[in-house]
Amino acid sequence: MPSTSSPRRSTPSPLRVAGRVAAWAVVLSSLAALAVALVVPRLGGATPYAVLTGSMQPTLPPGTLVVVKPAAPEDIGVGTVITYQLESGEPTVVTHRVTAVVRSLGGEVRFRTRGDANSAPDRDLVRPVQVRGSLWYSVPYVGYFNRYVDGDRRDVATGVVAAGLLAYAALMVGTDLRARLRSRRSGSSAEVVA
Using CA atoms, how far apart are residues 29 and 128, in angstroms rounded to an integer? Predict the structure, then answer.
């Protein structure tokens, strides 16, 4: 009579379990970093920038990714962190805190700004046309990645990361299928006719 006992599944070693946990942690943290740096800003109509200097320490140290959303001048007040062009139309930007809202006799609004770590305010007042947006959120250290991967490199990096994640998923599925096949084979050969 054939044996009806089911084949025993081997328990994975603690090292193998730790390896899987570490691999999933890397995959999930990579996906989270990509979402924070690339996907969320695009979906939210925002722009990511990297903090390069220590002028906003300790709030926004160098390497921090700051994501700014467009802001109307009337929504910007004292204490708002804004990213603005040093000169209108130029690509160089600065992220500093508004310390005063100044109105001219003609009613034009301008902003006095200062970095949190700076002892003196910025030299020039900021006109609304220079403002790229106000701080939506920030993430420490991700700014280094964002700074390195800009423009064409961002598209390439996104493709490489996506391909790597797909390859990893295929490897995990293949490994699992191979383990199941081995388990079935060893189970069928373990049946003994009495």
Answer: 37
Domains and CATH numbers, the chain: 14-175 (2.10.109.10)
Question: Could you report the per-residue pLDDT of 145-177, keeping only the tens digit for each?
Answer: 666 666 666 667 667 767 777 787 788 788 888
Q: Is the peptide bond before 12 cis (omega within 30 degrees of 0)?
A: no
According to DSSP, the residues that pair with 135 across neighbouring strands are: 68
Please compute, for residue 26, the number of CA atoms within 13 A of its CA located in the half-sphere on the CB side: 10
Asked whether the beta carbons of 68 and 133 are under 8 A apart, the reply is: yes
Rounded to whole angstroms, the Cα distance separating 99 from 91 reads 23
Structure tokens at 19: 């390896």
**Residue 129: strand, helix, or coil:** helix
- Rounded Cα gap, residues 46 and 21, in angstroms: 33
Non-local CB neighbours of 107 within 8 Å, separated by 6+ positions:
none
pTM here?
0.63
Residue 134's closest CA among 69, 52, 57?
Answer: 69
SS3 at position 103: strand
DSSP β-ladder status, 81-85 and 131-139: antiparallel
